[in-house]
Design goal:
The chain is α+β, with helices and mostly antiparallel strands. The chain has 4 domains: about 260 residues, no CATH class; about 200 residues, no CATH class; about 130 residues, Nucleotide cyclase, GGDEF domain (Alpha-Beta Plaits); about 140 residues, no CATH class. It is about 50% helix and about 15% strand. The radius of gyration is 38 Å and the shape is elongated.
Length: about 775
Amino acid sequence: MSLLEITNWRPSPRFLLEHLKVPRRKPIKLEGFPRGLDGARVDIWLGEALEDAIVDLVGVSLAKRMRTLQIGGANVLDSGEAASRFQQAYGTAAMATAQRARRLVRRDLFQLFHLAVVKRILLELDRQITAWSEGEEDPFSTVVGIDALSRAERMHQFRRCRSRLRYLAARDVLAILHSLDRVARKRRKSILALSWPVAEELLFNPLLQLGELGCEENFLELYPLVLLDADRLREMERAVLEPLREWLPSHCVDLPPPLDATALKSLPLRRDMGELAGYAQVEACLRRVLLEEEFRGGRLCWLDKPVNLVRLLGGDRKGKGVGPWRHSRWPAFQQALFEEVERNLDQEALLEPLLASIRLRKIYPNLGRRGSPSLILDYLLGRRSRQELAVALEKLEEIPNLAAYQALLSDARKELRQASPSRRRRWLLQALEGYAELRRDLKLAWEAYHAMNDFRLLEAEEEIRLSRTNGLLQDFTPGAVAEGRSGAHVIVKADLRGSTRLIADMERVGINPATYFTQNLFEPLNTLIKVFSAEKVFLEGDAAILMIADKDDGDGLLVARACGLAQELITLVAGRNRENRVQGLPELELGVGVAFEEKAPTYLFDEGRRITISPAIHRADRLSSSDLPPACVKLLPGGESVEWGVAEVLVRETANPVSERAQLRRYNVNGIELDEAAFTRLRQEMALKVVEGGSAFGIEGERYHLGRFPDDLGKSRWLVVREAPVWSWDGREPMATDWGKGARFYEVVASPELARKIRHLLAGKR
């Protein structure tokens, strides 16, 4: 029977939890940003000034720490100058981002910026250290006291101290960032109504500064060394939390199923594995220790505030006469709870290693931070004799005075064995607080790594330009104006037929084709592009692909303007044909297709030339084509006299409808065809009146839609769209499929006479 069961009083969960504060943190939400060029992560550019300032500050910090560790030091900028440059660049970018986030009512924009700066610092540290270790750059210069060391010896020391160097430099640089953020927090709150859009303890989490978790010296400085082993941490979790079960949510008490080495290797690889390797290590540790619901679900409880555990178990930070601490039986309950935790730790063989870890943290700096911490821990626990320790230390070849070193360790070992109960209690409370901090920091590190894994920091100029052009780049350069991101867009494909024959006849009669096409087609086309706010996608002698894109709020007259542009193209070619008839030259045919796409186009670059990619291009190309068999053209309304218009026909070579799959063929001669998406969008852009074709003219099953719109010059333009059934032809005679109930197609009426007739009909003029 435990002491807790002997005591007659124990606080109820509700009563106790009222006085154990749960930390409050804003969740990181980056889902609202468009995915970048890789289709998976957000593209970010911090701006040249801030990027350069981070490079300089990291270089200075590494050089200073190399001198501290007596392994060299590169000749870099003065540390004060580098810090000042960083302060200026970061302060300007941070305030500009905060103002932009407020203007856009998007606090997540500042979250993205804050995390991007931290990630850039960590990546730059790794980049410079890797470049030095691989010999790409020479970090070594003369350092007082080690002039005699060769470059090879310094490189050996550099590689041995690499993890320590990375941690110390990361801590220095992030301390500067932390200081700047704390100074600016009130101003940030005045802009964003929040001091820390990303939690302070998450941004400056020590585990992010550690990077890889394998360095014992770094880990010892922050947490009990014995907990570096995930299996021991799992045992600690069970021993500490079992007595606290009734005051904890279920996701904190239950342990995940054990993971063997094979299961750990099967964990999904992180996209950032090559950038921030600590991500995979942190996740592997958490999967052994915590339920996935807790760390992936962002579940918080009072245990995520380490001071709560210390207060609950009777540490120095007791409650000041409030809540359960006022109860007369609280001290007895608290003592019983502590002793049960202590007994559980002892049963798990964790009690003495925890106490030794706390003492080792205290004495390790006095040992010159030399020697393997795990080796020393084994000696303090009596797992190695003095002689075994001496043999192992001699192999390390890094301790100048071995006798004095061993004397310090002997005193520490003796102190551990002879410590009074009160001292052991104090050390154990420190270890418990370290455990709670490690538990919290692992969760925070996973959250930070998970968020950082959702974006990438671009460096290559070509990638930055391509991402910016596609409207995907989150550019944090102060004063940068986001390039207009074309959302919905319309593709206009003009297919010019007969140009080869026309050019041959021109050359025969002495007319310069280049001059003719430039003056009569290309120059007028450039004028029309300006009138309708279009842009060229592709242009060659007998084809043009144009685009009208929405860069505003999505309510622009995209399809209406595209139809107006298409009408002008038809009129332009018709005018040229009249002149060709006078000169005895062959005429041109033009088929125009108009296709609408709700999503934005994609852009590629080929030797500096922008290439537009859109599914609407292929659809518009098909709409502009004309491949109907001549035998079928004769049977259409108007017969061989058809010179203007569009038709779609399902062609079968036999009257048996199931003998062969029908092929859709299209007739588009001096006509304009819309795809269904374009017509649907047009009805949203304009108020269209409808006239049924069979009631006054035309063919049964057809209908005409009429409306007006202004072009970019303010001129009011009429637009008539013919909606007609797809015809079917089995080799005998054409007929409309289901007379209006089947497939339909949409034609912008290019014939001036027909358009005028429909306008007069609606106006009451027959």
